[in-house]
Design a protein that fits this description.
By secondary structure, the chain is mostly helical. 53% of the residues lie in helices and 0% in strands. Keywords: Chaperone.
């Protein structure tokens, strides 16, 4: 009797809610780092979004200026070189300096915050190399 069984299970919790993607998911400290409670409680500063998108805005204005001076081919060629350089990366467990990208942007002679104290968005994550590579390739 399937109707009787479904009426008995009305007050129970479905098994899908206990899955790994549900509210009881274990926090993966190795991949995500420590959770920052401060960012969740306090509203972000108005300039934070501007700072996060600074390089994108800078590139866009440089491409517009380059298009006005040299024509449409120059920014397209530079964007193609950017895309090719971004594809070359080290293994997932090693930090990549992106020196070729800095050279294309003209930032290779500038000393910034990330050169001395490292970029906070690329925090050092060291784990088991084989697991991290398999995760990046989608095998895990």
């Amino acid at each position: 009797n399937s109707r009787g069984a479904s009426s008995l299970l009305k007050g129970t919790i479905p098994v899908a809610e206990f899955s790994a993607s549900g509210p009881f998911e274990g926090f993966d400290l190795m991949r995500r780092g420590f959770a920052s409670v401060k960012n969740e409680l306090m509203p972000s500063h108005p300039l934070e979004l501007s700072e996060k998108n600074f390089q994108l805005t800078q590139d866009k204005s440089n491409f517009d200026m380059l298009r006005n001076i040299q024509g449409i081919h120059a920014p397209l060629k530079l964007q193609m070189e950017f895309r090719a350089v971004k594809q070359v990366q080290r293994l997932p467990f090693l930090h990549s300096s992106n020196l070729a990208l800095d050279t294309l942007r003209g930032n290779h002679e500038c000393i910034g915050f990330e050169d001395i104290l490292n970029d906070p968005s690329q925090s050092e994550v060291m784990g088991e190399p084989h697991v991290m590579v398999e995760h990046k390739l989608g095998l895990l």
